Structures are given as C-alpha cells and as structure tokens.
Amino acid sequence: MVTLKRAYDPVSRTDGTRFLVERLWPRGVSKAALHADAWLKEAGPSTELRKWFSHDPAKWSEFRRRYFRELDSRPEAWQPIVTAARRGTVTLVYSSHDTQHNNAVALQEYVHAKTRRPATSKRAAASGRSRRRAG
Hints:
- The protein is globular and about 35 Å long.
- It has one domain.
- The chain has helices at residues 31-34, 47-53, 60-73, 75-87, 103-134, and strands at residues 2-6, 17-20, 38-39, 90-94.
- The termini are far apart.
- By secondary structure, the chain is an alpha/beta fold.
C-alpha cells in the first residue's frame, strides 16, 4: 500500500517506509523532524517540468503525462518504492500545499500501476497455459 503525507504533517508509526519524493528539501523541516527513510530526488519531476507545471490544476493532465514519461525513462528512481510497497506500507512525503495536484499524487498512481501490472501479466499467462492444456 502506498499512502501520501505532507512533510509538515506529524509522523505516525503506521506510515511504514517513508520516502521524500521531492527534488527540493521542504522549507522549514529538519532532517530529524521529517523521519524519511530515503530522499528519492530523482523520483520527483525534473526541474523543467516542475517549473512548467507550477502547481496549476489546469495543467494537471498534461503534467501527469509528461511526468509518467520521465518516470518511464528512469525506473531506478522509483523502483525502491515498488520494492518497499511489496513488503508493506509506504508513505510518499511531499511538500506541496495542494494535496490533489502534486507529484506525489501522480507518483502514487504510477507506482500503483507498476505494482499491479506484473501480477496481472502472470495471471494472464497462467490462464493462457491452462486453456491450452485443457484444449
């Protein structure tokens, strides 16, 4: 399970593995207060994309499309999230004031798709094999 939390919200035991997924460190938050297990800078959007988006909800769909393309090109940036999510709860920590239109929301969607895809492919392959045997 992958959850989201602002960097300014209190840490909880239920957060599981905490990953800061921003290129920039959150203002006014010490490393000790953040309690991040890792800072995955490269999992955040590029500086160019972040500046272009500028947290404008009208650009949300295009931001997601561009961000997913960036993530596709650097799987090593988000793979630790997928690996940790397969073992337990993961919390993506972000600093945006907008809780609906930010890179962590998009990244959560992206990771969810990545963690579901292999299981679906395995099931499809297994059902194809069983149909061939039966016929």
